[in-house]
Amino acid sequence: MTRRATAQAHPNIAFIKYWGNRDDRLRLPANPSLSMNLGALRTVATVTFLEEEGPDALILNGIRVEGPARDRVEAFLDHVREMAGFRGKAVVESRTDIPAGVGLASSAAAFAALAVAAAAALGLDLSERELSILARLGSGSACRSVPPGFVEWVAGDRHEDSYAYSIAPPEHWALWDVIAIVSEQHKAVSSSEGHRRAATSPLHALRVATAPERVARCREAIRRRDFESLAEIVETDAIWMHAVMMTSRPPLFYWEPATITVLQAVRRWRDEGLPVAFTLDAGPNVHVLCPREAADEVARRLEQVPGVQRVLTSGPGGGACRIPDS
Amino acid sequence: MTRRATAQAHPNIAFIKYWGNRDDRLRLPANPSLSMNLGALRTVATVTFLEEEGPDALILNGIRVEGPARDRVEAFLDHVREMAGFRGKAVVESRTDIPAGVGLASSAAAFAALAVAAAAALGLDLSERELSILARLGSGSACRSVPPGFVEWVAGDRHEDSYAYSIAPPEHWALWDVIAIVSEQHKAVSSSEGHRRAATSPLHALRVATAPERVARCREAIRRRDFESLAEIVETDAIWMHAVMMTSRPPLFYWEPATITVLQAVRRWRDEGLPVAFTLDAGPNVHVLCPREAADEVARRLEQVPGVQRVLTSGPGGGACRIPDS
Fold first, then answer.
1. Do residue A247 and residue B257 have CB atoms under 8 angstroms apart?
2. Which of A183, A234, A240 should be substituted to probe chain B, the one whose Cβ sees the most B Cβ atoms within 10 Å?
3. pLDDT tens, B204-214?
4. B232 and A240 in contact by Cβ < 8 A?
């Protein structure tokens, strides 16, 4: 019997951010969050479990990886092995077109795909919610890459209560994300470390306390396809998260000079009548949201902004799912 | 009898910021603030009151000025005339070495000098506190340029209760401000307009509510000449103010790409052991605080940072005072 399965998942861009945990080990988030899967980017993971015990192997884009990235995958697979009552080692082959470590949620797509593939390989018949909960153990925001389209992550109090669900399918709203890459350098401080520092900022507790209200308003804006309302909430929450980062101890500065150039350009374009809104994950790149009709124009303009190295464009994407082994 | 007097005042750099009013007309601030006068920069104002009534004249650095700047001076002088029971028009000659409108508190020094000169010209014998209250009517932060050295502005509930006083004389601590000028463009949105928008930010109320605590900690850090503590409080408050600005409706972005370059450099230098801390007023320029011993090195390094146009250096300065007419 071959214990092998392949799955794909998309990264997601958060409209209301996840920053800070109430439980670091279980990755129970301090606040609920809301995101959209990015259909144009994806990770495909194939997991093969062997009978023999031993260290797991991780092969990323064809290259054997050791160190913390492999350790993190092994720790994650230990959860799956425990659920399935299986002890053999795994070989994980993962391929992605997402630049890693630049705040493009590469780990979200990776662990969502891995959760689906690993569970299938060991014959676990898990629901979407259970897969979301499982993916969360690998990377918090990975739980949001399991359901399709526009997704809300219920913060929850316990492991079983912290999962993501779809609030609208990808075809509900042709909302585009045009991503201005201003740096492909791997970030100096990981998101995991950042989450641990969040509570040291005096701006954190209020962001957490008011996040449910912003999630509700954002959910409503998505339901009504109300770009103006979405823009205001999304920009406020992104700035707030970065203000938390910049006032943490020690402080975290993810912005680059070109980040400001893009933010200024986006504000100018909006004043000129172009429907655009910005958000930023834990990195210097700027995600420019717009209706699909404006995406080509936004991409064209972003490519001309000094400091922008390249532009990626994506509409809403589906959830994590099993695909045939290649 | 000649109704003429001349006074000088320094601008000040706030360590805990003034942003938002509880009363826009009286410029009663939402929160207490704390600052240091900058002795190396100054404004000298000569006020001459004439017997005849009519519009006041404003001459800035030798150039006759009309429009909103003159109107603001006339509205301010109306308060002084009312206090003195005098109705004649004034000629105000003001000279300064402070670039205007780039977040260097040019209006603070201008109205502090004007308050002292105008009161003296009309024979009003006002205490330091009364002069501070008067200056506040011209520009909120001008009240902080009246007392010497390190200064706290008591927010107050009423006009008579909102004034600044010295918490330590300039010679108490050789703390230097090395200012990286990244733009000399006049800011697109005035501080007065910014103050009106402050309350539209969801980050404003908590900043206001917690400002007294930061003022107390900052006061204590100054008393103990504790640079480390000062650095942490000052940076947090500055980021918080700019986060309020960036999340106001409509949003206010004062940062330029070179602002980020300087902030990154300051953080790197501190990691390397140089005692430096940043703060920013309502503008893109970065004030780098350091002990006097480090000021030359900091200035030398700042001059080499890309995007920095020039560097100004200042230690603590005295209060606003009358000087002989030139």
1. no
2. A240
3. 999 999 999 99
4. no
Four-CA torsion A261, A263, A265, A271, nearest 10 degrees: -150
CA-nearest residue of chain A to B242? A243
Give every CB contact of residue B20 below 8 A, 6+ residues apart in sequence.
B29, B30, B31, B195, B198, B199, B204, B208, B244
Amino acid identity at B287: H
Buried b (16+ CB within 10 A) or exposed e, A233-257: bbbbbbbbbbbbbbbbeebbbbbbb
Return the C-alpha torsion angle B163, B167, B169, B172, nearest 10: -160
Averaged confidence pLDDT in chain A: 95
Question: A324: which DSSP letter?
Answer: -
Q: Is the dihedral of CA B185, B289, A246, B198 positive or negative?
A: negative
Q: What's the complex ipTM?
A: 0.91
B249 vs A260: CB contact, 8 Å cut-off? no
- Sequence-distant (6+) residues with CB within 8 A of A225 are A172, A173
Reported confidence tier of residue B165, pLDDT bands at 50, 70, 90: very high
Between chains, do A203 and B263 touch, taking CB under 8 Å as contact?
A: no
Residue B155 and residue B30 in contact, taking contact as beta carbons nearer than 8 Å: yes
pLDDT of residue B289: 98
Instruction: List, for residues A143-172, the tens digit of each pLDDT value.
Output: 999 999 999 999 999 999 999 999 999 999
Report which residue type is found at A168: A
Cβ–Cβ of A253/B264 closer than 8 Å? yes
3-state secondary structure of B14: strand
CA–CA–CA angle A304, A269, A243 (5° rounding):
95
The pair of three-digit structure tokens given for residue B85, joined into one six-digit string:
């029971």
Contacts of B255 in chain A (CB under 8 A): 260
Contact yes or no for B299/B311 (Cβ under 8 A): yes
Report how far residue B219's alpha carbon sits from residue A164's, in angstroms, rounded to the nearest whole number. 47
List, for residues B278-293, the tens digit of each pLDDT value: 999 999 999 999 999 9
Please report the sign of the dihedral spanned by the C-alpha atoms of residue A45, residue A50, residue A56, residue A59: negative
| Nearest Cα residue in chain A from B211 | A202
Rounded-to-integer distance, Cα B32 and Cα B166, Å:
14
What pLDDT shows up at residue B99?
75
What the block records as the tokens of A136 is 């969360």
Which residues touch B140 (CB under 8 Å, ≥6 apart)? B18, B21, B27, B29, B195
Q: Give all domains of chain A, ordered by start, each with its CATH number.
A: 3-171 (3.30.230.10), 175-314 (3.30.70.890)
Interatomic CA distance for residues A47 and A41, integer angstroms: 20
Instruction: Write out chain A residues lying below 8 Å of B247, CB-based.
Output: 235-236, 239-240
Query: What phi and psi, each to the nearest 5 degrees, are found at residue A120?
Result: -65, -40
pLDDT digits (tens, 9 = 90+) for B231-288: 999 999 999 999 999 999 999 999 999 999 999 999 999 999 999 999 999 999 999 9
Q: Single out the residue of A1, A17, A16, A19 nearest to residue A247, CA to CA.
A: A19
Q: From start to end of B134-204, where are the E strands?
A: 150-154, 163-168, 175-181
**Which tokens in the block code for residue B228?**
């480390």
Q: Which two tokens stand for residue A80?
A: 């799956």
The Cα–Cα gap between A72 and A135 comes to: 12
CB contact under 8 A, A258 and B257: yes
Q: What pLDDT shows up at residue B103?
A: 62
- Statement: residue A102 has pLDDT above 70: no
Q: Which of A232, A235, A3 has the alpha carbon at shortest distance from A119?
A: A3
